[in-house]
Amino acid sequence: MSLSEPRKSCNAAIPPSVIETYHRLRAGVRRQVTWKLLSERIEIWPDREHLMYLSAVLLELPLLRLWKDKKLYCMPCERCGGVVFGNEVVGMCEHCQRAVELRINPLVLGLLSDETAGLRGEHNLLVADEVWEKLFGLGQGTGNDEAISEKWLRERERIVRYQRFTWVLLWVRGWDGGRLVVVDVLDVNGTEL
Ligand SMILES: [Zn+2]
User: From which domain of life does this come (predicted)?
Assistant: First the structure.
């Protein structure tokens, strides 16, 4: 299992058990890692749960580009499997003529990088709704969609891009061969945003 292997470009719903595991493990040692250490740990112990804290910067954040392409949100249609894109949390599958609930396109995380390496949103990375809400005020049912405009997105890009955050990552064994989930984001000192 390579972390840099491209995966489905949609953000699956994170099962509640993953978030529960995060809250159980976060009471323990806060293991600071680099991308290099993180991928080594997963390669050596893929069948363990790893909760890791990574200090990294979003070098690419294509919020505006995805919005202009009408791809800010996406999700596969459950019936036909075709990916539905849109700029709102509900889209329409053209093929099946049915409404599909969409989630934020993980490609928003263009390039998340530290001093050792980086990972792109198109890779083996899932993002919990809470992270989107903290970073952008975007998420499922936040009711914030009406506020989305070119000016608003440009402002979010300006605030979040190049800023160092502590990214909380949980490696979930046994889920689709193991998935790396961004379960939380904290400020650079590891305290709540
Ligand atoms: Zn469909």
Answer: Eukaryota
Judge residue 130's burial from the number of C-beta atoms within 10 Å of its C-beta, 0-12 exposed, 13-18 middle, 19 or more buried: middle
Distance 168 CA to ligand 1 centre (A): 34
CA of 100 to the centre of ligand 1 (A): 8
CATH number (2.40.50.140, 2.60.40.1120, 1.10.10.60, 3.50.30.10) of 16-68+109-186 reads 2.40.50.140
Q: Per-10-residue mean pLDDT for the chain, 193 residues long?
A: 56 87 84 88 91 94 94 92 92 95 89 88 79 79 62 90 94 85 90 84
Measured in Å, residue 30 CA sits from the centre of ligand 1 at 43
Ligand 1 centroid distance, CA of 10 (Å) = 15
Model-level pTM?
Answer: 0.84
Determine the distance separating the centroid of ligand 1 and the alpha carbon of 97, expressed in angstroms: 7
How many angstroms does the Cα of residue 83 sit away from the middle of ligand 1? 8
